[in-house]
Amino acid sequence: MRFRPTVNRRRRITGMMTATVVAVSTMLYGAGAVGATGTEAGTSAPSAPSLEFANPNSQALYGTAYQAALRNLLQTNTISWDPAVYNKSGLMDTGVGIVRAGGGYPQPWTRDASVNSWNATSLLDPALAANTLWSAVDKDADGKLQIQQDDQQWDQVIWVTAAWNQYLVTGDRSFLQNAYQTAADTLAIREHASTAGYNATYGLFTGASFFNDGIAGYPAPPADATESVSTGSMPWPGVATGMFLSTNEVYYAAYTNLANMAERLRQPAAQVAAYKAKAKALKSAINKRFWNQRTGLYNYMLLADGTTGPYQEGTGLAFALLFGIANPAQARSMVAHATEMTWGMPDTYPNWARYSDAQPGRHNAIVWPVVQGLWAKALAQQGAQTAFASETARLAALADNNSGFWEIYNGHTGVVDGGYQRLGDDVKFHWGSQPDQTWSATAFLNMIDSGLFGMSFGDDGLTLRPTLPAGWGDVTLRGLHYRDADLTIVLHGAGTTVQSLTIDGKRVHGAATLPATLTGDHTVEITLTGATAGDRDADGVPDARDRCPDTAGTPALLGCPGPGHIEAEDALNTGGAKTNVNHTGYSGRAFIDGLWAQGAASSYTVHRTTSAAGTGSLTLRYANANSDTRTMTLSVDGRTVRQVSFPKVSDSWDSWGTVTFDDIPLTGPDPVITLSYGAGDNGSINLDWAEFHSTAG
User: Fold this and answer.
1) 100-136: per-residue pLDDT in tens?
2) Spatial separation of the C-alpha atoms in residues 210 and 196, rounded to whole Å
3) Where does the signal peptide begin and end (predicted)?
4) Per-domain residue ranges for the chain?
5) How far apart are CA 463 and CA 419, in angstroms?
6) What Rg value do the Cα atoms of the chain yield, rounded?
């Protein structure tokens, strides 16, 4: 993604942090708001729902990430817009904003607008989603509506799936009428296009992979070892004429949903049948040309000369499940054989020969949260509870440790990393990873909505098929707006099988479907039959008894890590604090930077075996190459203790020192110590690790 010529795509980082931007793990903590804020626009939006786990550690991990994702979508990235630029369709509401692609990417863009609406915006703010979808639509000289005809031809038709979802969520037939015209005209353009069009020989559409608009996402061929033609993908003849799994799956979904639109609008039966026939033929071609019996997965590519690519494409595998292209046996095989990296489902896999674990390609063996989200949704749909739980926990931790949702992460370390591209024989260009990425945040929101609560939308209403992993505990989604109803949805137990269902206290038998005609406030409670208790962090403590089931610890602390030492990359880092590796001498996987503005903070949960009040000392390893002593504010459980000082260590940010703060008051078994850039502080240090020692109590 992200090769639009008008955008400065490389984030400028000044001062002590000047190179690779990176990030890392823990699955204990929550996330805060981060980065630049969008311009809020238009009329007041519906109030956002809240996610509440009974288990405090689940709340810290998933609940805080959920709140950060809501802020990302509905505040940071909801912006005002210029009618002269965006309202080419004439269908936008001037009193409502649009959703931009994220930090560093001020536009909505067709693919981002579509994915973000499909993931979350249509449910959370239907008017905002409609405006965002229409912002990607133009009128031609004859007044026909069509997706904007830019230089990324291959990804235009994902809009059709997003538009169909918008209708299912809202029931808005006026929207559907215009969406149908837009979809039909756009698919007609693509069918007859000379570039990224239809290859009748193979029965497939040509053009780049849905997600991979950079040549780093392709092996050689169609690339070469030095990426000598272009960093983008479509200038490469082999890509432009090649056929790729995800792109053809998106076309299949477009034809299927266009047929659905035509049926709802009572178009001629012959027209409906024609779209269905095209969908059926495309599905058959995908299974014929891409399914690989040997690997038990779909191949990534088929070049025009017949060369196949038995590589793994994350979005392609997810779409095969989500769109029903894979049959049940294929679906089981994919779930069993797909390779995930330490921090989630990669974009493409494995490393191309010109990349490596040390220098992963921008679109190669690297983790994009938007891909994680699609894969997690597909896993939940398949009933793969443990795999779904792991993917969701990974993304929550990536957000929690790095002040929110970034664009790309290293798949092995979880470090924020934009990946590499070649610039010739000897040079690899290292991209930055942008903050506040909307589709990273909406990916997590969709993990909760479509995965955890199992929401799906139809003409008849909202259906719930939950996937509640063992060890997460009971969970409540409160204040969810669905059409004219305000819902509270409560899940008890664990697993995927519904034991009982009540609506407003009355037992309901059959499917958990809430009618589209429902109005007013209602409470839905679902009790699940249970699930096998896992041990996700492999510490020997079953999740059901583990106070910290996502971070390896010791049985004496019920699975929580000991209080003596914690790496800064495993803290709750908020307000712009994030992990980095652009200086040497740190321990663990990274260190924390970004503590250069008020509001930045790093928080450490001290897991104790006692609840008695006491005191302790905190030792911090830090770097300070400023000319003077720097100050921060130390607090416990949100209460300020005092301002603390960090003397200069040396003139080099590669040098580290330690400082100890005594007489820190503690109560309860899990007090949270926070170091923040508060009023009156001057901050601008780097943090490596913290050690806590009890001195009394």
Assistant:
1) 999 999 999 999 999 999 999 999 999 999 999 999 9
2) 11
3) 1-36
4) 194-325, 562-696
5) 39
6) 25
Q: Residue 565: phi, psi to the nearest 5? A: -150, 135
- Please list the residues that pair with 574 across neighbouring strands: 601
Write out residues in the chain with pLDDT < 50, as ranges.
1-42, 697
Residue 281 tokens read as: 């033929």
pLDDT in tens, 555-607: 878 888 877 888 999 889 999 999 888 899 999 989 999 999 999 999 998 88
CB-neighbour burial class of residue 226 (10 A; exposed 0-12, middle 13-18, buried 19+): middle
Beta strand extents in 637-685 (DSSP E only): 639-646, 657-666, 672-676
Q: What is the pLDDT of residue 360?
A: 96
Record the pTM.
Answer: 0.89
Percent of the residues in the chain that have a pLDDT greater than 90, as a whole number? 77
Name which of 73, 124, 126, 131 is nearest 98 in CA terms.
Answer: 131
pLDDT of residue 89: 95
CA dist., res. 511 & res. 504, Å (int)? 16
* CA 503, chain centre distance (Å): 31
* 81 HSE (CA, 13 A, CB side): 28
**CATH class label, 562-696:** mainly beta
Could you list the beta-strand ranges (E) of 10-55. Answer: 50-53
Do residues 614 and 604 touch, judged by C-beta distance below 8 A? no
Distance (Å, rounded) from C-alpha 635 to C-alpha 665?
Answer: 9
